[in-house]
Amino acid sequence: MNDLPRGWTQTTLGSLGRWRGGGTPSKARADYWRDGVIPWVSPKDMKSPLIDAAQDYITLAALQSSATPLIPKGSVLVVTRSGVLRHSFPVAIATRDVAINQDIKAVTPFTGIDARFLAAQLRARAAAILSFCAKSGTTVDSLDFDRLKRFPFSLCPLLEQHRIVAKLDCLAAHMARAREEIARSNRLADQYRQIIMAAAVGGEAAPTAHARHWPRLQARELFSWASGKFLPRSRQGAGDVPVYGGNGITGSHTHSLIDRPTIVVGRVGAHCGNVHLTAGPAWVTDNAIYARDIDPRIEPRFAWLVLRQSNLNAQSGGTGQPYVNQGVLNKVLLRLPPLAEQLEIIERIQAASLWLDRLGVEQSAVRRLLPAFDQAALAKAFRGELVPPPEVDCP
Predict the structure, then answer these.
(1) pLDDT, tens digit, for every residue of 83-96?
(2) What are the pLDDT digits (tens) for 341-392?
(3) Rg of the chain taking only CA atoms, in angstroms
(4) Exposed, middle or buried: residue 86 (CB in 10 Å: 0-12, 13-18, 19+)?
(5) Full-model pTM
(6) CATH of domain 215-336
(7) Domain-wise residue ranges, the chain
(8) Looking at the domain covering 9-155, what would its CATH class be?
(9) Do 151 and 19 form a contact (C-beta atoms < 8 A)?
């Protein structure tokens, strides 16, 4: 902050405008709160860069009869006391007249100070502000108000403030679109994954033209079901054999109920109808049903794919707590391709899933970079590097 760009000056936050604190009108006075029309902003409302509403409202009588001031539209609000200060420094601009509680300070900028420029620089220097202004020896996370007003601020001419804010707004719009595209691509990837699965087990993605001739069978013709057995929670976690309940692996056990890969289906509760494929020896609890025998005509991995697409949750019974029983499972209809085609379908689905997984990893990496890009743009803005100097600006 010592090497300021040409035309910039260094001042303090306290010199940028009129600072005010807030307060809480008496909760014992119902007329201060009932049918209130003035937003009373507290830290719980400071989750947006612009504030035009609050969870609580106060009346004009509360303003006139208490120490709570009216903060004019265009003021910058900052949280100075809250647990949130352990990891962030909320800053917002009031887009209408508001009141604030005692955990917030407000600064109404003087002429020549753009509130958006002020708010942006506060966000850019949030970490330094929290470090410099932290109040020690308190049980509540808070900032020392005098230190906050002494914190240095880099100020440039008003027109340049406007240009910097406009550039930041433009970049923010680009970043918002990037986040929307990532979210959209994630949704499309999930839909594509479901389409691939449904098409594969339904014969539409079959490796041969004979899918229409695949026989349609009921699950009772291919599976013999059995219920799991009760296993005390105290015995789950003592060994290296996984325990399967309705929600998947829940622990481990030293002895196995089944000794081979098989299908496990959640039987009751919120996880009824969930389908899992065990990798080897496992214990199945009484919250689930498992395939005791699987016809050799169907590969367990293909069976898992088919049953996952059968929407067992929608077929569950029970008016209170939903359940899936052997009767429901036995009625499931599925198309059975030759074993060789089942294996090829599995390979194709695995290849597509691997590609979608890689895409998801790349999207996650980009999404993690976006906050760093935001912070880098803010840092450049207040080093005078985000927009060219006025003399080289394009008209």
Answers:
(1) 999 889 999 999 99
(2) 999 888 888 888 888 888 888 888 877 777 777 778 887 888 877 787 665 4
(3) 31
(4) exposed
(5) 0.62
(6) 3.90.220.20
(7) 9-155, 157-208+341-395, 215-336
(8) alpha beta
(9) no
